[in-house]
């Protein structure tokens, strides 16, 4: 890879040649980060060159991605999700320049597709015929979908209690699903042993430094969609921490090659019931594990496996932490849907919930350029969406739902009563 210099340990600075046998530091066990040859990339890339490209996917940024020469990107169209200027939503919240980046529009409906696309391309190049990971959620479905499209097999380890909807998505993509009678930690350990024994490509996000390189493409797109300008703030939800680290890496890379001239501040949004990363920032202390009390399952991560990278990203960006309750997340789901036409899963709408709070507290000024990344689609988790809409078993019914007999007279009366027409 002409554009990649090395894989560097974020803890002790040890340098390794980039390659698939080096995932963690052999000296201290730290997580590695991919470092590029920015001078070389500068000579290859310009705003004009990028703007002229017709490839509207993550692969338009090839010079900034760790792809071996001769690699074949998978066939799914990943990335180049829309960035909407949402004036009506912004007005409701009190922000003049609010944008929503809808990453639920990726092929398997979450931002994780960006990381899995890199995993699949690298696995293919390494001559692997099988990719594997352990996850209950979007990492697994994106890997299974990407592998299916590229003609690779996938093996996914899930804890027995994994939600049926998500397991179903895996089965439809033809993955071999190993449902482990045990908790997530035991599931992860079994997957690691099996990956080692059978030599599959390892997409376990915490130890594979290439995955946040895929996730960073969301920032490359945001900057380009804003005319090669960094926004003032970027808000997103945080679980393991790979995504926020990737988002930060994307802006830093663009800055290093001179495509943007300043960096945004990150807004790290976590659930009040599970916020180990934000708590560490707020108390300026190491991460301590927490219980996982939130309905936002994609960010219900009590023991973040990429916490160090996340902390570094938030601190370096002079970032802000915001914790939101499940109620606030459900309210943000309704608000996003109603005033922007965007349907996010709870972890997807959590970033927006954070923005609502930050704007109310005036932590974010009214005229700031703010991007909220919706990281996953609402249909991923219909049970939570029903809660947000007010039609779960505990609620009377949604205020915008009319149950009625097929009778025009009754309908007219109901409309009059509710002041609808
Ligand atoms: C994985 C995920 C996140 C959080 O990403 P991390 O890398 O775990 O911090 C947020 N939202 C959705 C929808 C996700 O799938
Ligand atoms: Zn190290």
CATH fold-type name of the domain at 83-106 and 212-389: Rossmann fold
Low-confidence stretches: none
Q: Strand order within the widest sheet?
A: 4-5-13-10-11-12
Relative helix content: 25-40%
The CATH class designation of the domain at 83-106 and 212-389 is Alpha Beta
First-last Cα distance: 63 Å
Shape: globular
Averaged pLDDT: 93
Instruction: List how many beta strands DSSP finds.
Output: 13
Report the order of strands and helices: EEEHHEHEHEHEHEHEHHEHEHHEHHEHH
The CATH architecture classification of the domain at 83-106 and 212-389 is 3-Layer(aba) Sandwich
Radius of gyration: 22 Å
Q: What proportion strand? A: 15-25%
Task: Report the biggest beta sheet as strand number plus sense, adding barrel if it closes.
Answer: 6 strands, mixed
Write the layout of secondary structure elements.
Layout: E1 4-9, E2 15-16, E3 32-36, H1 38-44, H2 47-51, E4 83-85, H3 87-93, E5 97-102, H4 112-125, E6 130-134, H5 138-150, E7 153-159, H6 164-172, E8 176-180, H7 184-198, E9 201-202, H8 210-215, H9 217-225, E10 233-237, H10 242-256, E11 265-271, H11 276-283, H12 307-316, E12 320-324, H13 326-340, H14 346-360, E13 369-374, H15 382-389, H16 408-418
Helix pairs in contact: 4-5, 5-6, 9-10, 10-12, 11-12, 13-14, 13-15
The structure holds pyridoxal-5'-phosphate and zinc ion.
């Amino acid at each position: 890879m002409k554009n990649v210099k090395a894989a560097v340990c974020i803890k002790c600075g040890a340098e390794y040649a980039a390659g698939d046998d080096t995932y963690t530091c052999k000296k201290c066990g730290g997580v590695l980060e991919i470092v590029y040859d920015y001078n070389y990339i500068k000579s290859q890339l310009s705003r004009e060159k990028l703007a002229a490209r017709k490839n509207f996917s993550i692969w338009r940024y090839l010079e900034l991605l760790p792809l071996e020469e001769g690699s074949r990107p998978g066939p799914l169209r990943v990335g180049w999700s829309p960035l909407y200027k949402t004036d009506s939503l912004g007005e409701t919240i009190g922000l003049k320049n609010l944008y929503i980046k809808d990453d639920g529009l990726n092929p398997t409906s979450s931002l994780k597709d960006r990381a899995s696309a890199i995993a699949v391309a690298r696995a293919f190049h390494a001559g692997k015929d099988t990719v594997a990971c352990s996850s209950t959620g979007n990492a697994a479905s994106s890997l299974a979908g990407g592998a299916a499209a590229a003609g690779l097999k996938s093996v996914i380890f899930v804890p027995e209690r994994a939600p049926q909807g998500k397991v179903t998505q895996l089965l439809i993509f033809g993955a071999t699903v190993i449902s482990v009678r045990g908790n997530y930690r035991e599931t992860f350990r079994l997957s690691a042993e099996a990956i080692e024994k059978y030599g599959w490509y390892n997409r376990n996000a915490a130890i594979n430094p290439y995955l946040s390189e895929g996730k960073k493409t969301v920032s490359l797109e945001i900057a380009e969609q804003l005319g090669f300008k960094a926004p003032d703030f970027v808000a997103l939800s945080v679980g393991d921490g790979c995504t926020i680290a990737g988002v930060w890496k994307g802006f830093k890379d663009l800055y290093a090659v001179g495509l943007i001239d300043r960096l945004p501040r990150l807004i790290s949004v976590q659930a009040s019931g599970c916020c180990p990363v934000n708590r560490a920032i707020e108390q300026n202390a190491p991460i301590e594990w927490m219980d996982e009390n939130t309905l936002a399952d994609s960010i219900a991560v009590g023991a973040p496996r990429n916490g160090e990278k996340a902390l570094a990203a938030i601190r370096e960006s002079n970032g802000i932490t915001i914790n939101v309750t499940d109620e606030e997340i459900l309210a943000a789901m309704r608000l996003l849907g109603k005033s922007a036409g965007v349907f996010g899963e709870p972890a997807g709408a959590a970033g927006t919930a954070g923005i609502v709070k930050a704007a109310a507290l005036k932590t974010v000024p009214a005229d700031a350029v703010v991007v909220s990344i919706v990281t996953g689609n609402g249909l991923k988790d219909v049970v939570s969406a029903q809660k947000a809409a007010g039609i779960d078993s505990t609620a009377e019914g949604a205020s915008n739902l009319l149950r009625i007999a097929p009778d025009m007279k009754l309908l007219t009366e109901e409309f009059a009563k509710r002041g609808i027409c």
